[in-house]
């Protein structure tokens, strides 16, 4: 699932793919030419310049500077970058980041209770619903109608699907104008290169096969750099519990990612952590734990990437975005063998993999909402509209012409120095300004890797050739052992689906039941993983299942089944218009 699931059982309305690329603005000067008046603050009226009455060229009205505050958990995020300085030149807008240290959702709840929150909040759908219910947000419909032509053009005929049940737009996110799987798509189970090398690069397809090579490697290498080798790690505190103890079950079942739920062919929804496949996965973790292969700190750590960075974790469930820049640092430190292969692993070899899916929007991925603290919210919408323009897309995704890319034969191409920096500097994206605060796949409200802008060129640099250019020699060698060129080659062809269940606003009539069920899950997880015998495991499993059923499990499943049916009905009605 996307990083958005760190918020729990969340959702917002998904939209569908646009059926064409809409022209916005010229795109050849430092990321593009001039935008329309609605995007850049407007042009001043022409005035007489001489006694003869000759008029000058229309001049842009000066943009008064304005700064908005915004929440973030990224301590490196800054507005002082080359790209963001151009954002400010074009729009007059800048951001001051309010860093959250500690549990993010708790801090957001405290802000809401006190009425003292940043101007702009980047949140998942569930938190947006809280802020909406608390009267902290302003609706964006009228502002977008007046100041957001590029936003409306990019969403096109599906713009209305941005609206909530009350008909109002409470947040913004990116729209995916591509039907292709991303070139950097990958499976989410990771295994260190050195583990695969010592095992002779075996074809690993199941969790049991993974167990065998992990045990063999740790038996031979009980320590790495003087510290205990960790066979398999995870994280249980905060939002990562959903990624580490729900999503692997979905992946190992070969299913599309619907968050903490699974959906059968008839549209029936089931809470995934209490499914029979969940029991299989927790049994696998118990086996790891009983044989000294499971990270004992997993129950208390809230950032798996920090543990991965130590280089002694042999395997884990970790989507590429969670691994982050850890592998770049391994290469810089002279340990490319500690990088990870991204392999699809299943409960059985005959599992049909349906996990590679593409959705029409990036709803659910830290959408941006405007709070009542924001002064002149129209300036913020103009800023977002600039990002949705072709000029803004080129600047945010490709960078500055002559600095980050050049145009050859009418096509944008990243400069060699830029490619080298992306490959070797883990902080390059942040320092240059390519990194933003959520907004979906990639950053800065992009319109999809593989999508094209009105000039016929790609909206982002992410192509297969680009992905290959980032691989080091060892990565290419490991891939060649499996007859692959990229990690995406391990995946089946992508299927386009209307959306994911976690993108839709959750039903509010079962909040209490859902909370009790989640509490039972978190309570029993350590007991299941650390069970001393099969009997102890079964006792804990039965206890968890019974507790959830008493808390209203069936009501929750029924509510989400109806929610999914309603979403599909609305979606089908929209595309049928």
Average pLDDT works out at: 87
Oligomer: single chain
Strand order of the largest sheet: 7-10-4-11
Number of helices: 23
* Largest sheet, strands/sense/barrel: 4 strands, mixed
SS elements, strand count: 16
Shape: globular
- The low-confidence runs, each spanning 5 or more residues with pLDDT under 50, are 1-59
Q: Report the portion of residues in β strands.
A: 5-15%
Report how far the terminal alpha carbons are from each other: 30 Å
- Taking Cα atoms only, what radius of gyration do you get, to the nearest Å? 25 Å
Structural class by helix and strand composition: alpha/beta
Pfam families: SBP_bac_1
Biased composition (Polar residues): 45-54
InterPro entries: Bact_solute-bd_prot1, SBP
Region (Disordered): 32-62
Task: Describe, in plain words, how this protein is organized in 3D.
- The longest helix has 23 residues, at 553-575.
- Mean pLDDT is 87; it is low at 1-59.
- The chain is globular and about 65 Å long.
- Helix 6 (149-155) packs across helix 15 (377-388) and helix 21 packs antiparallel against helix 22.
- Strand 14 (405-408) and strand 15 (411-414) form a beta hairpin.
- It has helices at 37-40, 82-91, 104-114, 125-133, 141-147, 149-155, 193-198, 207-220, 240-245, 247-252, 276-290, 304-308, 320-323, 326-332, 377-388, 390-397, 416-424, 428-432, 464-470, 473-481, 511-529, 534-551, 553-575, and strands spanning 66-72, 93-99, 120-123, 189-192, 223-224, 227-228, 230-233, 261-263, 269-271, 313-317, 340-343, 357-358, 367-370, 405-408, 411-414, 495-496.
- The protein is an alpha/beta fold.
- The strands form 7 sheets. It has a 4-stranded mixed sheet. A two-stranded parallel sheet has the order 1-2.
- It contains 23 helices and 16 strands.
- It holds the Pfam family SBP_bac_1.
- This is ABC transporter substrate-binding protein.
């Amino acid at each position: 699932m996307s990083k958005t699931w760190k918020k729990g059982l969340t959702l917002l309305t998904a939209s569908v793919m646009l059926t064409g690329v809409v022209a916005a603005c010229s795109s050849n000067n430092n990321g593009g030419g001039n935008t329309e008046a609605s995007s850049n603050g407007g042009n001043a009226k022409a005035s007489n310049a001489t006694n003869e009455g000759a008029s000058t060229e229309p001049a842009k009205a000066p943009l008064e500077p304005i700064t908005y505050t915004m929440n973030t958990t990224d301590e490196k995020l800054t507005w002082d970058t080359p790209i963001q300085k151009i954002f400010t030149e074009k729009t007059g807008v800048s951001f001051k980041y309010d860093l959250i240290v500690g549990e993010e959702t708790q801090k957001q709840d405290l802000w809401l209770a006190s009425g003292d929150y940043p101007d702009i909040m980047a949140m998942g759908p569930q938190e947006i619903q809280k802020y909406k219910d608390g009267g902290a947000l302003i609706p964006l419909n009228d502002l977008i109608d007046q100041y957001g032509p590029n936003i409306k053009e990019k969403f096109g005929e599906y713009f209305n699907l941005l609206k909530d049940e009350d008909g109002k737009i409470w947040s913004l996110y990116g729209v995916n104008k591509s039907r292709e799987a991303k070139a950097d798509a990958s499976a989410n189970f990771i295994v260190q290169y050195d583990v695969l090398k010592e095992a002779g690069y075996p074809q690993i397809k199941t969790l049991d096969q993974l167990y065998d090579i992990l045990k063999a490697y740790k038996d031979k290498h009980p320590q790495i750099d003087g510290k205990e080798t960790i066979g398999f790690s995870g994280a249980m505190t905060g939002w990562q519990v959903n990624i580490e103890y729900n999503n692997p079950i979905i992946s190992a079942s070969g299913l599309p990612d619907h968050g903490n739920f699974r959906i059968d062919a008839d549209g029936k929804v089931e809470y995934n952590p209490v499914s029979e496949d969940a029991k299989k996965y927790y049994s696998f973790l118990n086996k790891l734990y009983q044989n000294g292969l499971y990270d004992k700190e997993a129950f208390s750590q809230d950032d798996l990437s920090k543990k991965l960075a130590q280089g002694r974790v042999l395997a884990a469930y970790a989507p590429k975005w969670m691994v982050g820049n850890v592998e770049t640092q391994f290469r810089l430190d002279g340990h490319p063998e500690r990088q990870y292969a991204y392999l699809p692993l299943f409960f059985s070899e005959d599992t049909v993999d349906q996990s590679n899916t593409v959705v029409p929007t990036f709803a659910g991925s830290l959408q941006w909402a405007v709070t009542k603290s924001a002064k002149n919210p129209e300036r913020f919408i103009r800023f977002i509209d600039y990002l949705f323009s072709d000029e803004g897309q080129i600047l945010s995704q490709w960078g500055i012409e002559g600095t980050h890319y050049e145009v050859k034969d009418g096509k944008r191409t990243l400069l060699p120095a830029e490619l080298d920096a992306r490959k070797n500097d883990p902080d390059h994206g942040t320092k240059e300004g390519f990194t933003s605060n959520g907004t979906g796949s990639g950053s800065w409200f992009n319109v999809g890797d593989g999508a094209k802008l009105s000039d016929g060129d790609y909206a982002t640099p992410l192509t297969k050739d680009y992905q290959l250019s980032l691989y080091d020699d060892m990565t290419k060698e490991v891939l060649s052992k499996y007859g692959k060129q990229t990690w995406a080659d391990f995946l089946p062809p992508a299927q386009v689906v209307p959306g994911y269940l976690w993108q839709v606003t959750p039903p509010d009539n079962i909040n209490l039941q859902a909370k009790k069920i989640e509490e039972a899950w978190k309570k029993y997880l350590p007991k299941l993983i650390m069970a001393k015998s099969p009997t102890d495991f079964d006792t804990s499993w039965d206890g968890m299942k019974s507790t959830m059923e008493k808390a209203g499990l069936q009501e929750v499943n029924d509510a989400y089944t109806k929610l999914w049916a309603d979403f599909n009905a609305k979606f089908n009605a929209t595309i049928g218009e």
